[in-house]
Structures are given as structure tokens and as C-alpha cells.
Amino acid sequence: MPVPVLLVTGFLGAGKTTVVNHLLANAEGRRIAAIVNDFGAINIDAELIAGASDGVVSLANGCICCSLEGDLLRTLSVLLRRDSKPDYIVIETSGVADPGDVVRNLMDPVILREAPLETVLCVMDSATPRAALDDALMRSQLRVADIVALSKLDLADEGAGVRMREAIRAQRVPAVVVDAKHGELPAALLFPATTDRAPALREPGPKRPAEERFETLSWTSDRPLSLPRLQQAIGRLAPKLARAKGLFETVEQPGRLMVFQFAGGRATLAPGEPPSEGVPRARIVFIAELGVLSKAELDALMDGCVASA
């Protein structure tokens, strides 16, 4: 029996992991395997996926559309040959991935027969400036989508959703546009009721030349952080960041990790799980345009956040 694939795409910080978390938490008896790809040496997204265990496969240290094509196909093959095969597979791409290249790989006849690409979901931050939709990567993410989910409506002003729908319509995107408040989408919209129909062939469009546009800088510490110092450091780094995310323990709240997210100029903190043994007390990934932020500058600012022994 074929296992349908849901491909989740969207720009840096759009809210893809929140959507995937909601789907996994509301699986309603479906066995869903999630393949999570992050751009950087530390795959924070895999740790943030609900119930991260045997059902979550991490593809780290690269972009899924280029250096990890082989890893993606091998991972699909392993999932399909498990004794307890999943009912559905969700692939979450990194925010810098061109989904057209991923779709092109999923159109491989062998993969298409065993794991047909059922739905492409593009998650879009509703507060995204209209001019940003002229970005070639963002256009590629919208162009292949069957469904566009508007996220972070609770953080945007009242008219943001309407303006974003108009901007997407101006791009002549054929996708259905829906609201995804708090990452919530009905599973019935994304997963087919039956899997016995022939898989649809897709035209991912011309292959774009690979463009190295972003880089990741990872920072870790074996000691907890001072929250006020961290807030000051992030304030200084913010103008240079496209995205940041991480897990860390603070001296103000020992014994519990904090989940840190920075996207669209907004920083958020949320309580996480207790820290695990044998891993750094702080693990943060910073994403910036090439050449904008040096490792030396980052380390100097972040090392100043480490609490005294």
C-alpha cells in the first residue's frame, strides 16, 4: 500500500514546525512519520517536534534540496521498509530550501509508486511584507503549493491576513489559502481519506541554479545563561539575523530548558523540557545573510551571556 507524503515548505521562521507539531499531536490514530531537515550543524527543529522519537528522522547540516537529496531518498526507503510502516510521511524542509528541487526528487518513479507526493503545504507568516513575495525563493515556495497556510495571525494586526491573501492572489498562485491560527490545520485537509488512487504527476518548474545566500553559526555552552545578558545580546544581534532558535537553561530558572525563537524581528521564549544528561546546557543556531555576521562577533556576544561558575 502506498504511503502518501505531505511536503511542508515555507521561508525562515514562517512557523512550519508549529504546524507539524499540531498535526502530530492531533494524528487521530494515524501513524505519521516526520522527516525534519534543518539548515545547520545543530538540528533544533528535530528536538522541538512533539514526541520526537523513532517517528522523527532528522536530516541535519545542510539544505534538503541540494546536499541531502541522497539522504532524503535513503530515509524514505528506510521508513517504507519498517515492520510497522507509517500511514503518512511528513517532510519539513528547511526555510532556505527550494521545494521545486524536493518535488523533482519525489517524482522519481520508484518513490512515486511507494510514497506519492499527495500535498504541498506552504506556511506563510501573515505579517510578511508584500515586497518580500518578490523574493525568488519565496515565489518558488508559493508556486509549488497546493495549500498556503497563513500563520502567526495572533501576532499580526487585524488586516494582515486580508493583505497577505491579496498579495498571494497578485502572484497568481493557484493554491487554496487558509488560516492556521496557532499552527492549527484540519488533518482532513492535508491527508487523503483513501490512498488507492493513482499519484498525480507534478511539474516543479525549471531547476534554479544553486545560490548560497544564508549561513548558519552555531553556539553552545556547558553552563547556564543569564537571561538579562542574553536579552541584551539578542538585541544587538537582531539587525543582522534572519532567524535564530535554540534551547538553553538559565540561572534564573535552573533545571528547565527554555525554547528560544527569533523570526520576523520578534523574539519569543517558552518553557521546555528538563535538560538531558551529556548535552550542552545551551544550544543556539543563528542564521544570517552570508558575510553579515562573523563567528568572532557572535562568540564574543554570546560568551558574555554565560553565567559565572
In short:
With 309 residues, the protein is an alpha/beta fold. Helices cover 27% and strands 24% of the residues. The strands form 2 sheets. Strands 3-2-4-1-5-6-7 form a 7-stranded parallel sheet, with helices on both faces. Strands 8-12-9-10-11 form a 5-stranded antiparallel sheet, covered by helices on one side.
Keywords:
alpha/beta; Hypothetical Protein Yjia, Chain: A,domain 2; 7-stranded parallel beta sheet; single chain; 24% strand; Rossmann fold; globular; 309 residues; 5-stranded antiparallel beta sheet
Describe the structure.
With 309 residues, this protein is α/β, with parallel strands linked by helices. Helices cover 27% and strands 24% of the residues. It folds into two domains: 5-190, 3-Layer(aba) Sandwich (Rossmann fold), CATH 3.40.50.300; 214-303, CobW-like, C-terminal domain (Hypothetical Protein Yjia, Chain: A,domain 2, 2-Layer Sandwich), CATH 3.30.1220.10. It has ten helices and twelve strands. The strands form two sheets. Strands 3-2-4-1-5-6-7 form a seven-stranded parallel sheet, sandwiched between helices. Strands 8-12-9-10-11 form a five-stranded antiparallel sheet, with helices on one face. Helix 2 (44-48) links the parallel strand 2 and strand 3. Residues 51-55 and 58-68 have low confidence and may be disordered.
